[in-house]
Fold these 2 entries.
Entry 1:
Amino acid sequence: MDITFILISVAKIIGLVFLTILPMVAYSVWAERRVSALIQDRVGPNRVGIPFTKIRLAGLGQPIADGIKFLLKEDFTPSHVRKGYYWLAPALTMVPALLTCAVLPFGSELFGIKMVIADLSVGPLFIFAIASLSVYGIVLAGWASNSKYPFLGGVRSSSQMISYEISLGLSIVPILMIFGQLNLSDIVMEQARNGWALLPLWGDRLSLKGFLLFIPIFISFVIFTTSMFAETNRLPFDLPECETELVAGYHTEYSSMKFALFFLGEYAAMIIGSGLAVTLFLGGWSLPFGWLVPEDGASVPFWMGALHILSFLGKVVAFILFFIWVRWSLPRFRYDQLMRLGWVFFFEIALFNILLTAGILLFVK
Amino acid sequence: MAIVVKRPKLSFWEKLYLPGIIKGLGITLRHFFLSLTGKTKVSMQYPEEKWDSHLPEYYRGAPALVTDEQGRERCVACQLCEFICPPRAITIHPEEIPSEDKWAKVEKRPQEFEIDMIRCIYCGLCEEVCPEQAIFLRKEYAFTGLKREDMVHNKKRLYEIGGVREGLVNKWNELK
């Protein structure tokens, strides 16, 4: 381990996690509130701007005010909880959500450095391994709270997350089969050269085989996105916390910054899930139609690297807006419907989809 | 006897559920763009935009004392409003009109008249009970204060809010 590698990694971690994802979490809460308000013909938070002035900036100061509010609130621990686990749970939700961003390639190159924190050759496996840990945070929160509603929320959440992890994992197998590898950076590079998984309109994939493969990829995408909703506990699958039945589900007993950690974890998981979907299906940092693809071995100029990062962030933002749009359009599933959808439909369709992909790869030249 | 509820028969597309989702997404998207471009406008941005000019004549805002056209106070400090007031928001300190005064025949007037706006429930019983038509519910409704004392309207403030009200009042009739 030489020191420059460590310093560069630290710089990338700070740049991605603290300067990109956490502000994005804060502002996706704001976006959620504004978009939901507009969908429901309301206005939403549009007042908080620069303090002590009349400048409002369409409410862009709201997340900062919310953050300060969370920091200043009393951190209340009820007397009936198991303290150790109760304190551990919010951290266990937040940490896995942020850890998974380590393997996401968020840009091509900047100053000759690859824009990914850890260029692992087991990218998606790493993400699933870590993301499945976040269920522990929720289960611990539910059990340690020692109260009915959090308990029910925790039980529901664990069964839901475990069920949907299966279809989530199976749904990306066709993608991995098509690209033949597990390194996310190389998958993105391949998509940049030969057409995005969901947009096979240039390069090698502009062929009969490419178009045929579009069918299983589209099925994969639908299953992956839906399972992602379930994994991140978003509506229409927000049974772990459904307000109308369980008060607030597993975080009913939490307040102040501990509640905020659950909130941050949920949104961070959403952002990183969007990032993974963008990486696998929508060409990651690449621009459409093979524009500005870096050559092998050639250095990438600064403006191009920056453009690639912006492209990635733009796609992620669009995906988050899609998340929000869906949340405010669909009603919540009933619990048995949720389980049926996961186990009876998605699981089978994902399995069949793998066979279909294998068939196309085998027989169509 | 159990009632058998007939389930609606769903068509293939309804069973597939996806067309319904897409239709729903379309509806929310339309609402989103219509309110984004300002075509649907429901909310009123409160402190800047107010409903005040649309308030109906019968609106029950803050109770206030009124004077007549010549600036004379109508209240005779009969204290009926003080008695009727359900939350006991009104406090009147009556005083006698000195005998050398031109209107000594009216006998009483309020020396101080206080309405505690923290207590007031805007019911309008004071207006209804007043025999001299001296107290009315006006259209002001937004009162704020930093102390409890700020929220008590004294006589001066009540006349400021109340303003002038025209109409016949018997006590100014010298013959009666």
Note: The domain at 73-170 of chain B is CATH 3.30.70.3270 (Alpha-Beta Plaits).
Entry 2:
Amino acid sequence: MARKLNIKDERNEIQLFRSRAIIAGLLVTIALMGIVGRLFSLQVSQHAHYVQLSRENYQKRIPIPPVRGEIFDRNGVLLAGNHIEYVLSVVRDKVDDLDYKLDQIRLMMSLSDKEMRKIRNKIRVNNRYQPVIIKSNLTEQEIAIFSSNRPRFAGFEINLQMERYYPLGEIAGHVLGYVGRIDKRDLERIDKSEYKGTTHIGKAGLEKTYEMLLHGKSGYQLVEVDSHGKQKNMLDQKPPVAGNDLYLSLDINLQIKAERELKALEHNGAVVAIDPNNGEVLAMASVPSYDPNLFVNGISHRDYSLLRDNPDRPLYSRAFQGIYPPGSTIKPMVAIAGLEAGVTDSQRSVYGKGYFSIPGSKHRYRCWKKSGHGHISMKRAIYQSCDVYFYDLAYRMGVDRFSTELSKFGFGKKTGIDLPHEKTGLMPTAAWKEKRFGRPWYPGDTVNIGIGQGFWNVTPLQLAHAVGIVSMRGKNPRPHLLQGVRKSKDKPIEPAPVQLLPPVVLSNDSYWDVAIDGMHHVVQGAGGTARRAGAGAAYQFAGKTGTAQVFGIAQNKSYHASRLKKKLHDHSLFVSFAPLHKPKIALAVIAENAGGGSKVAAPLARKILDAYLLGDTEQSDKNKKKSKNSHKRKNKNKHKDGKKRKKHGKKVSNKKYKRKRSR
Amino acid sequence: MVEDNQITDFLQRLFADIDYVLFFTVLLLISLGFFVLYSASGEDFVMMKRQAIHVFVALSVMLVVSQLSSKLLQSWAIWIYLGGVLVLVLVLVMGTVGKGAQRWLDLGFFRFQPSEIMKLGVPLMVARYFSEKSLPPRFIDIFWSLLIVMVPALLIAKQPDLGTALLVASAGLFGIYFSGISWKWIIGSLLSLVVAAPLLFHYGMHDYQRQRVLTFLDPTSDPYGSGYHIIQSTIAIGSGGIDGKGWLRGDQSRLDFLPERHTDFIFAVFGEEFGLTGAILLLSLYLFIIYRGLYLAFNGSDTFSRLLSGSLAMTFFVYLIVNTGMVSGVLPVVGVPLPLVSYGGTSMVTLMAAFGLMMGLRSKRRLY
């Protein structure tokens, strides 16, 4: 050491080192304060932000969809319900030998190559901790086979899932509508936060109208997940609130009767039955119909094409979306309109010579009765359906007066029934024609609408509604299907409010009598056009036939059904209400291309009235015999067709679905 | 009885050189580390047991190393250094691949990381070099000392192991700093480093290193790739707040969002579970250990002891600042563990050996 001391200045070196050590100490202190500063910024200044990020990391909100409300008819028969579906799913992470296990599952569940490829692909793409559905709608047999092999299939699980179903299938299909998977268009109009976890939404019919009531409120489970998405603990939960149950004014037995009778005609058609006292729709049938169950899990392309491309257009409801010339069914209302407009009085008679010509014109507007009705009063003009009388009356009124008066009965406007996409029909005016065709309204146009032809179009619903107004002498409740709402199974049914539209007030109340008497005489008077349909009725009622021309017949030709294609045959219409005093039901029936109203629509209407007012005892006796050994129960149902009964009847009359009235 | 006396005497002499202030602070830190590790490992007792073995080995090494005298170390320094450089070259030539880098030398029965030795070898050699020179050093001395530092540092960086290279280089550079190199040189070289940094970025780095730097500058550019570490660790620390979420309650670590949480990112677990309060306490312990190391160096009896202790204390500091800076997102991700707390035997043994050296150098009584 001494050797080196001569060149080293030990004291100086110690000083130098010590100053460097102190500076180093300072550097360390400053650097660590820097780190503390950074920590302060993260943990104090931005704390809330990072807490949020941390939560987003590990908290996952799993929505729990609510149970959709059920739909019942007025007697508590289930029309739309939810049934439990069994679904087989797999969590990839819990399976050892996935390929082998899948092959085994395949043998049990009979899955096609294509399905297997899809499943494998889904499993590959999906998070390994989240379940992947292998098969839904498991049969009891499949469940049994799987359950007995359960221990060998760790990671595979059968779960419950609620699925919408319509126990009666096609019955009232158009009215109920259906639910389907939520699509892009639905997403635009719904509150997404309310639909978390919900897969289906009302797409048509009442399911669509009352989506808000039926859906309920979704709940959630807040769970803790790790970075792989594996659930660890449940942190919080809010149970879902089930949707409201709806009780319809529909009487499903009457509905079935209507659909059955329409089908038996082998013509397309519609029946609308309304309680004219309060606007409750009792039956609303449209044939052909469709089975809403097809749509629930996504209708197959093939099935959909079949429905869409069917020339009989089963997807649309003829009852409130079909528009037809009303034909003679509106003659009682036209009569009232004429009286109210002051262009005639009920005593005035017209000479029916078989045709009508506008003064100064040679064109002949023909009556259905070539020989003519001779001198004819208003009442007889109604029950014998004299065209000439009404040509004359309409001509006297002029189009705008005519339209104004008849609009009061709801023509040319939506009734506002609680169904989506109701058609408006058309109550023509001069201004409308000018705008639509750029041509003036000709007096001949007025003559045509006088007998419910020409530009005038109505829906069967509008017809039933208008007849209801007549039956109640002006009372005008809005037609509707919703009768009551039940918030939950243990709560009473709250009645839905009845909306009264402005009543039809006439300057002289006796005007109603002319129309009503005339209609009564149609079915239960000598010479009435539908006297055969009215024969032997145990109650008094009223009606009016209509035969709507689909095809214009040239001036010098006459109508021969046999020479025309079926599509061009006349529509057969009938409107009615019963009983005559204190009516309980107003009815409109149309059978497309079926010919004269008195021949087809009127007898059908009579059957429906009988069924509703009397109860169809004769037929339920038959049914009792047929199903003697199958069920012990009070059978309220009037199915004729034994095969159909098996499918639907069981559910209709099953006590389980009977509404328990709380009061 | 005589034998008993001999044993107690031996033990007394064995522990005579321990600096108890440093020793107990270090023990306190290590015990604290066990708590955090228990949480970070997901309450894994096997891992705790292994870490206990690491600590036991490291303490034994510390005890043994604390017996080595300044003179002995000076004479060994050159051989340790040269041996280390030789092995580093060997590793580059025939090293086995581990963690995507050639770091490990497989001797068949034993795999070890020779770069770890250089964390001690380089400061030993630098201290040894300056102990013979008159200080402050002349230009030529600085040149040679820089060569001593840069050769192994570059060899390690080539492996590539940027973290260790950084620690090795800083150990040596702090030795040069303590030798009394003039401030002109220090500031001048820092400035030139700033200028050279972009060049280094483009030509001197591996792709993954360049990626790390880019990710450090903007972690959100690659949130699920290399930015994931930084994002998750800042979330862990930030969500800890002032008081922390509590022991075993760190959601980020418990639920596996925080990667490498029992090794390099354990500081984030600490920050999440014990908050700012706990972090300040932990950093205070570290600060105390560094101060104690500098204090021991301050009172060193010769140039070699002073330079070696000083540079080892500062290496410990670099460990700390690089790790905490990385975990809290102010420095790029470099694979440096949190000293004495992160799981792992290698760095634990090296660090405890360094403390052993520092303790031994302050005393004049020696066993051997």
Note: The first strand of chain A starts at residue 59 and ends at 64.
